[in-house]
Each structure stands twice: as C-alpha cells, then as structure tokens.
Amino acid sequence: MTEKENTEESGKNLFPLIFALLALFYSTLTCGRNFVWKNDLALWDDATRNSRQKARAHNNMGLAFAREGMFEEAKGEYERSLGLNPYQAEARTNLGIVYYVNLRHDEAIEEFKKALKFNPNHANAHNNLAAAYAGLGRLDDAEEELLTALRIEPGHIKAHLHLGIIYKGKKLNEKARGEFEEVIRINPGDTNALAQLESLK
Is 54 a residue whose pLDDT tops 90? Predict the structure, then answer.
C-alpha cells in the first residue's frame, strides 16, 4: 500500500472518532467574547432592531440560535451580518461552523478560509478549518492547520486535543500522548484528553 493510500485509509478509520469528539465543537470554538444569557434570543432580537452596530448584533443573534440548535436560523443571521459587513472573520467562522455541524465540510472549509483571509492569526479559525479537513479524512491538511493554530496560541486546548487525535489516527502514539498530556497540564480535568490517554495504554 502506498503512503497516500495509508493516509487515506487512516483518515477513513479515524472519521468516526473525530466526528464524535468534534460534533459539538461549534459551542467552544467561537470568539471568547460571546456569552450565553438565559434570554439570548430576546436580547439579540431587540439589538438587531435597535443597535447601530447591526452586523455584530445579527452575528450574536446567530450564536443565540446556534446554541439552541436552530442552525438554519443561525445561518440566516450570520448571512445578514455578513451582508452588512462582509469582512468579519468572526461571522465567517460562525457560518463555517454551521456548515460543519451539518456535514457540509467543503462549504465550511470555504468560510474558514475566508475568515483567515481577513484575519490570518485567528487561531480558532485554523482549528475549525482543521476539523473540517479531518471530517473529509484530509489528516495532513488538518495537522498543518492545528500546528499553525498552536504557533499563534500555544495554549489552545482544543488544538492540542485535535492534534493528538490526528496523531493517533496516523499511529504516531507518542506524539499523540504528548498532545493529550499537554491538554491535561493546561486543564487537569479535561475528560476527553484523559479518555484518549487511556485508549493509548
């Protein structure tokens, strides 16, 4: 079997594991300034009607919809936000996440790349792009994006976790172990990393 075939086979075998761990990543990989309020939808609906910064308000309302699992509504809000200001890395990233959780990986990749065009140092966008690549079994591309994310933000927990999963899929168990251990060093209670370490024994 050629090296390319080995990589493709590893990607296929790894897909169920990656999907299981990353299916909910949309809620943890958006920009840190977005918070959850009990009345998110009402709050941001009012903001989109009254705010002078309507692009941001539509983006935040999209986040509120996404956190309720209302992805089509979220998509509409992100698109409205981008219609008002197409140069927002954050809204592009959030739109890509909606595509990702609906398994529309190619469209997710396109949006994450656009986000990175506007902000090449957006560590979350690199991490999200890696997740989309991994969903297609493109492990080398995913690894490259995760390494870039970690150069920008060395303490990015999700990037370390995802890189460990990529290494595990490539049978690079010592490298995988190192990434999972780094996650635990940063966040000792991380159950995903602990479970992954256990699986390497």
Answer: no
Confidence of residue 102 (pLDDT cuts 50, 70, 90): confident
* Closest listed residue to residue 20, CA positions, set 120, 162, 152, 175: 162
d(CA 128, CA 113): 10
**Closest of 56, 39, 38 to residue 47, by C-alpha:** 56
Structural domains for the chain: 3-141 (1.25.40.10)
Tokens matching residue 56: 């941001």
**Rounded to the nearest 5 degrees, what angle is found at the Cα of 30, between the Cα atoms of 66 and 189?**
100
Interatomic CA distance for residues 157 and 64, integer angstroms: 24
Question: Which stretches within the chain are classed as H helix?
Answer: 3-22, 40-50, 54-67, 71-84, 89-101, 105-118, 123-135, 139-152, 157-169, 173-186, 191-199
Rounded Cα–Cα distance for residues 66 and 107 (Å): 17
CA angle at residue 197 from 181 to 175, to 5 degrees? 60
176: Cα within 13 Å, side-chain hemisphere: 20
pLDDT value, residue 4: 42
pTM of model > 0.85? no
Q: Measure the CA–CA gap between 169 and 7, rounded to whole angstroms.
A: 9
Q: Which amino acid is at 59?
A: N
d(CA 11, CA 189): 28
